[in-house]
# Entry
Amino acid sequence: MAVDARGVALGILTAIAVIFALDWAQPLAISLLLGILIAYTLNPLVVWLERIRIPRALASLMVMLGIMGVLAYGGYSLRGQMQSIVEQLPAAASKFSVGLNRLRTSQLGTMQKMQSAATEVAKATAQAAVGPSVPRQPATHVVIDPPTFKLGDFLWTGSKGAVGALGQAIMVLFLTFFLLVGGDMFKRKLVRLTGPSLSNKKITVKILDDINDSIQKYLFMFLLTNVMVGLLVWLAFTLIGLENAGAWAVAAGFLHIIPYLGPGVTAAATGMAAFMQFDSFSMALLVAGESLAIATVVGTFVTTWMTGRIARMNAAAVFISLLFWGWLWGIWGMLLGIPIIVIVKVVSQHVEQLQPVAELLGE
# Structure
């Protein structure tokens, strides 16, 4: 079989160039994708308000202010529990460390004695084989003083990071608003750009409709599974008697956005909180185990089933996509990886040259 080496080489170089470009433009690309996804999520509400004779610009503003108000009210309602959790973090870490040391000390027994005896025998054997040791000059140790901590530098660095995050959030909000106000304007422009051919226009419209349908269904599934995780965690922690169960449930729902990593962080944090409250490793393992079990059950059965119904993708492709985007963009990449791969699959299904990609991603 003949192989076009030049074409393969150009394809590899193009892929490397695209990866470097995505890494270099990470802040802009992430903000752009977040704005598009949020606009896709809120667009049905704007369309519903538009149907009852509310201008689209006003409807977009009302929806965004309403969502921000709900989030602010939820955060304000849970501020006491959140503050209590933050205040307990230093004491919880110290107590958890003491408990681990106590557990480690209690488990030292025959094995440690055997290791000590083996060490002494090895020392004695080595001295007998070498003979009397020749005194050596003591080695000179060079101590490098670490740089002193400067509070001003720390605050300046933290303030720059906070200002950057705030600026990015404002940019995402404005982008979302303008996308909601624009409606299907970009869709009409893309259809015009495909040329005068009616077949090309139909294919473009079909691709855009399928992308819109798949992304909206995926985001609805995303919201449903996160709410389900939060409710189940709140119910389980309330039955156990864990303090601040509502705040932990909200945190579990938000962290479940991040695949694989989020549930692990939730389990570790809730396990430490349980140990702080009950002073028992068994209770800490129970709380952490329940958190992981809920996330696993919802992720394995509900999310996998609904994702399969929405995008018809195989699990290996989804996992590899998460690995790639997580490696490229970190946590944001793991969050945006599945929507990106859904868009790639929808486009590949309707473009003849990309049919192999659709076949690889499909079930």
Notes: The chain has 14 helices and no strands. The two ends are 28 Å apart (CA to CA). Residues 239 and 327 are 38 Å apart (CA to CA). The mean pLDDT is 75.
